[in-house]
Each structure stands twice: as structure tokens, then as C-alpha cells.
Design a protein that fits this description.
Layout (H helix, E strand, L loop, with lengths): L1 H23 L4 H31 L2 H23 L17 H26 L4 H24 L4 H25 L5 H31 L2 H19 L1
């Protein structure tokens, strides 16, 4: 239980770190796009090597396939809703464009953080130890989210202290979600465990394809393909030694 809480806190702490950078520092667009590209590769690797492959290995092909498509579908529906409210660029690590509400990005970030943290709790429950690949992937992907939302909230007139407080609340919610995943989900139910893992993998694939990777290429150019490949290789190496 303590392990689930600790690792979820570490993974979600990058939201606060990104928020602090967004409030107090300006980082070059190229640098942020390279971080985004590397994080995309790690996320795809985590979804493939840790979540989807593990789900198929444990539960066959039917339930993981169903979970995978359900995750991708739900992300698409939520993304469409958040986009209408001005939060479609919550994964972006540059200034908040006109018409894209910082609060909408913040709400979208909560929707992302909760299922990610539940997966961390489930991974601890199922494997008796945390998946470092998943923790690293979530940590990297959360950074630009906290960064872009804080830039938007600052432009919307929110006080710096209030912005930091909001992200601390998200971090606490993420930690609680991991604990819920650890306590409430039955580790003996192969169907439930495999569907949750595959569900998260589908949501991750849909997310990186529609949010992170497009901006990384837009801002960083062709080299982001190579950097993404390095991220994927990093996930593979971590999985191998894990």
C-alpha cells in the first residue's frame, strides 16, 4: 500500500514541477519539444511492453482487445468534450493560445491523472512491485501538462500561489487514485486486471497520437522521430532489466 502511494506521488509530482517551471521560468521551445518526443517514446513503450503485451500474455486476445479499444474510445470522447471547452492543448509545453482556457486544461489534466495513477496501484498489486517503466512514462508526460496549464492559468489571472495549490490538489487526487486501484481491484481476477492494463494502453496510444507527438514534430522538426525512438528503446531496456 505504501509503495502504491509513494510511486503515484512521484509520478504525479512532475505536474507540480511543470507548474513551477511554467510560473517562474521560460524554457526554449526546442527543448520542450525534445522532452515531449522522448516522453512519447517512453509512453508508447510502456503501453506496448508493460501494459498491452502483459495483458495478452495473461488473458488471451479477446479481453485485452476489448479493453484497448475501450480506452482509445473513451479518450477520444473525453478529448472531444475537453476540446470544446478549450483544453485540447493541455499536453502542450508552450504558451496557452488565445481561446484555450487554462482551467479547461487543468480539468483535462485531472481526467488524465486519475486513471494513470490507478494503473500504478494495480501494477503494484499484480506484480508485488511497481512498474518503473510506467512511473517514468507518466512522470515525463505529466511535465508538459503542468507547464502548459500553469502558463494558461497565469494568463487567465490566477495568482501564483493558487496555481501551485491546484496542482498539489491534483497530485493528492492521483495518489488517492493509486491507493483505490490497490485496495478495490481484485488481483485474482484475470479479466479485470488484463482489461485495465489494455484499457490504459489504448488511452495512452490515443493520447500521444493526438496530443504529444503532433506538437513535438511541429516544434522540433524531423529529429523528434529519432528522439522518440530513443524513448521507446529506453522503455524496452527498462522493461528488460525490470
Amino acid at each position: 500500500m505504501l509503495s502504491a502511494i509513494m510511486w503515484a506521488s512521484i509520478a504525479s509530482s512532475s505536474l507540480v514541477l511543470g507548474a513551477l517551471v511554467g510560473i517562474f521560468k521560460d524554457i526554449p521551445v526546442k527543448v520542450s519539444s525534445f522532452i515531449m518526443a522522448f516522453g512519447t517514446g517512453v509512453l508508447i513503450g510502456a503501453a506496448t511492453f508493460e501494459l498491452l503485451s502483459g495483458a495478452v500474455e495473461e488473458g488471451g486476445i479477446f479481453y485485452p482487445s476489448l479493453g484497448f479499444l475501450s480506452g482509445a474510445t473513451l479518450f477520444m470522447v473525453i478529448e472531444a468534450f475537453i476540446s470544446k471547452k478549450g483544453g485540447q492543448k493541455r499536453k502542450r509545453s508552450k504558451g496557452n493560445p488565445a481561446g484555450h482556457s487554462g482551467m479547461a486544461i487543468f480539468v483535462g489534466s485531472i481526467m488524465d491523472a486519475i486513471p494513470e495513477s490507478i494503473i500504478i496501484g494495480v501494477s503494484v498489486l499484480g506484480n508485488k512491485s511497481v512498474s518503473l517503466v510506467i512511473v517514468i512514462a507518466v512522470f515525463i508526460s505529466n511535465f508538459p501538462e503542468g507547464l502548459s496549464s500553469s502558463i494558461g492559468l497565469k494568463k487567465d489571472g490566477y495568482h501564483k500561489g493558487k496555481i501551485i495549490f491546484l496542482w498539489l490538489v491534483v497530485m493528492i487526487l492521483a495518489t488517492i487514485s493509486s491507493l483505490i486501484g490497490y485496495i478495490l481491484i481484485d488481483p485474482g481476477s484475470t479479466v479485470v486486471i488484463t482489461m485495465i492494463g489494455a484499457f490504459a494502453a489504448g488511452a495512452i496510444f490515443a493520447m500521444v497520437s493526438s496530443t504529444m507527438l503532433p506538437e513535438a514534430f511541429e516544434e522540433g522538426g524531423p529529429i523528434v522521430g529519432y528522439i522518440s525512438a530513443l524513448g521507446l528503446l529506453t522503455a524496452l531496456i527498462l522493461t528488460y532489466f525490470e
